[in-house]
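In this section we walk through a basic example: taking a raw amino acid sequence and producing a predicted 3D structure, encoded as discrete structure tokens. The instruction is simple. Fold the sequence below.
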Amino acid sequence: MFWVGLMDGDGSIQVNHSRAQLLQYRLIIKLSNLKSNYNMLIKIAKVIGGTVRISANNEDVIWVVNSKQEIEKIIKIFDTYPPITSKKICQLAFLKTCLSETSLEFYMLNRKLKYDKQLIIIKSKLNFNIPSYFKYWLSGFIEAEGCFSLRENKNHSFSIGQNDDRYLITAIKQYFQATNIVRNPSGKFYSLQVYKKEVLLRIITHCTNQPLLGEKLESLKKFSLKVLR
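The resulting token sequence is shown next.
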């Protein structure tokens, strides 16, 4: 469930081609090359599969699956815990179609149509019902997209955002019982920023009970010390 949230935030479900001859499939998560992120992706690889490597420029740590057979096995997780962001829903649907329609011609004709149903998905989720696995999913999504900010004036905050999916940020707001409005600072980006201590405490409690595993865990530890004073 955590992995699905992390994929929704920082992952990518890809179908590509090799010299217009063969289809290539890939699941990938790319994060800043920090020891905490590396250790987290190693844990994910041990439980789910895939391999972990450092990018050539040494800036990123990457979890990746390239084997079609391994991908077919791993994506069964999505049958139980579906992705929540509209973009990943579209990517997964296209991957599944290409796994069954293995024709390179089909891929070339349809690759630019991958996100054609994204707006329909977004509209269908205007009355979004939080799924049963949401709290564990949310920790993975916070690991990807959350930000714990400490300020000298002690006006500490937590923020989280996502392109396109206002319904998701609204659901996170409701889950934490925040009163802040969901902002749309630019384009199709929606964000929630929380300053109120009682809400920050609920966020800290959530991230303690459903633990973060990477860089954000280190941020949470520092954040908690300041907020709990």
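Looking at the output, two observations stand out. The first strand starts at residue 11 and ends at 18. The chain has two domains: 2-109, 134-227. In the next section we compare this with other chains.
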